[in-house]
């Protein structure tokens, strides 16, 4: 553990991790399972102690990145990693809202996150900061694409070696956007769950920080910053409904934790929680299946088949917590087909000017379906989490428009096109 570089002593709460199942407390470190019950571990905070000291004014005076909420993140030092990550736009989306039948619709646009255009930049920033505090010099991840991009980019910024494990048939855009950062890219013959299992063994064998395996408790905390920002950008209020795409189920679970913590420290008024709505693709919907069937366990999907590759996790680590999040808050969830996903991407691009990847299409299409079914409450703001960028899954958008003819560079040619466009409008 790196004590030498620390300017301040670690706040006491960062000395421990707590099991999310049996609540046993263990010493903090790059460990991901409880020694008593093998349950997942979680960071705990002294929320009472932050009441009155972590104020809206203090936060407002800080740089616009995710470290403006540092007291609610697992960092013992003045953070030096993950600069410029987060603080993405929260925009009103009235045209999309009109199409979906949702009043007061907003989009949280993580497709423009720094440095790799997805919400994964948040979790990596926090994991790599904590890795520094633990003295870890080699990092890595098991990834469906976006995590690979972000670990590669942020490891480059920090001057760290990175080992990135991905399924061999990942989208080319995501492979290129990883490899360009000069990392060790290891392509695995198998699906994501094979990659993840291998990484659990890698984390045991080497002294590496695998961000979503042995650093997962810290990684997961990064997701909360999306919720903190939504509340701050809504003038320190909490939305009525949130729609989030689900892969491992971590984001939706941590958004809930974020709003609870804000209420506990007094940054937002105590009141009803938002209703959480989870979204998956029908080709890989283990969390939605459990929600709909009332099961209390997740039945893993062996071979996911969907264009939403970034959500294609057949055995979601936080699946049961995600189900609880939707059930306990009065929300719900749904799964959408590949054509519906493409239509969701098209709607967001044509109505709000945001080109999202397939996972964003899942969120939009699911919101449309849930709205039609009358599941989304009419009162109050609804926030759609747009978690990734369309340039990373370009193929999926190819069918949304016609390429049109190519013409000679002559005005008469444009006149001809304008005439026929006018004809078609008649
Ligand atoms: C990882 C990811 C998610 C959600 O991931 P969880 O594992 O559920 O936290 C959503 N959208 C995109 C684009 C992602 O890459
Ligand atoms: Zn336990």
Describe this structure in words.
The chain is built from 15 helices and 13 strands. It is globular, with a radius of gyration of 22 Å. The strands form three sheets. Strands 4-5-13-10-11-12 form a six-stranded mixed beta sheet, sandwiched between helices. The protein has a four-stranded parallel beta sheet with strand order 8-7-6-9, with helices on both faces. A three-stranded antiparallel beta sheet has the order 2-1-3. The N and C termini lie far apart (73 Å). It has a domain at 90-116 and 221-400: 3-Layer(aba) Sandwich (Rossmann fold), CATH 3.40.50. It has 426 residues and is α/β, with parallel strands linked by helices. Mean pLDDT is 94; it is low at 1-9. Bound molecules: pyridoxal-5'-phosphate and zinc ion. Residues 118-120, 146, 245-251, 310, 357, 359, 387-388 line the site of pyridoxal-5'-phosphate (PLP).
């Amino acid at each position: 553990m790196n004590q030498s570089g620390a300017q301040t002593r670690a706040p006491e709460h960062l000395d421990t991790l707590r099991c999310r199942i049996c609540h046993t407390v263990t010493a903090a470190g790059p460990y991901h399972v409880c020694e008593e019950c093998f349950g997942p571990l979680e960071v705990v905070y002294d929320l009472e102690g932050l009441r009155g000291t972590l104020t809206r004014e203090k936060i407002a005076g800080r740089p616009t990145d995710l470290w403006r909420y540092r007291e609610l993140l697992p960092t013992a030092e003045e953070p030096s990693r993950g600069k410029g990550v987060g603080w993405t736009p929260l925009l009103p989306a009235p045209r999309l809202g009109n199409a979906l039948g949702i009043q007061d619709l907003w989009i949280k646009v993580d497709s423009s996150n720094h440095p790799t255009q997805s919400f994964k930049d948040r979790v990596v920033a926090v994991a790599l900061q904590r890795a520094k505090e633990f003295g870890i010099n080699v990092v890595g991840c098991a990834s469906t694409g976006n995590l690979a991009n972000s670990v590669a980019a942020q490891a480059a910024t920090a001057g760290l070696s990175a080992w990135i494990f991905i399924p061999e048939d990942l989208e080319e855009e995501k492979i290129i956007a990883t490899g360009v950062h000069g990392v060790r890219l290891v392509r695995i013959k198998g699906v994501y769950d094979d990659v993840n299992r291998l990484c659990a063994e890698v984390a045991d064998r080497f002294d590496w920080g695998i961000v979503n395996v042995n650093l997962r408790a810290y990684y997961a905390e990064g997701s909360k910053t999306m919720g903190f920002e939504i509340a701050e950008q809504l003038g320190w209020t909490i939305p009525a409904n949130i729609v989030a795409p689900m892969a491992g189920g971590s984001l939706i679970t941590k958004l809930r934790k974020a709003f609870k913590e804000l209420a506990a420290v007094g940054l937002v008024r105590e009141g009803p929680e938002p209703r959480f709505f989870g979204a998956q693709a029908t080709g890989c919907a283990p969390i939605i299946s459990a929600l709909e069937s009332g099961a209390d366990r997740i039945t893993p999907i062996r071979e996911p088949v969907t264009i939403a590759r970034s959500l294609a996790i057949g055995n979601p680590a936080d699946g049961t917590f995600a189900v609880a999040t939707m059930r306990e808050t009065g929300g719900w969830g749904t799964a959408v087909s590949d054509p519906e996903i493409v239509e969701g991407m098209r709607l967001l691009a044509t109505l709000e000017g945001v080109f999202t990847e397939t996972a964003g299409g899942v969120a939009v299409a699911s919101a449309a379906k849930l709205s039609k079914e009358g599941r989304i409450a009419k009162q109050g703001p609804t926030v759609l989490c747009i978690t990734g960028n369309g340039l990373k899954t370009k193929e999926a958008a190819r069918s949304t428009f016609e390429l049109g003819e190519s013409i000679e560079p002559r005005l008469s040619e444009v006149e001809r096109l304008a005439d026929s466009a006018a004809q078609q409008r008649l």
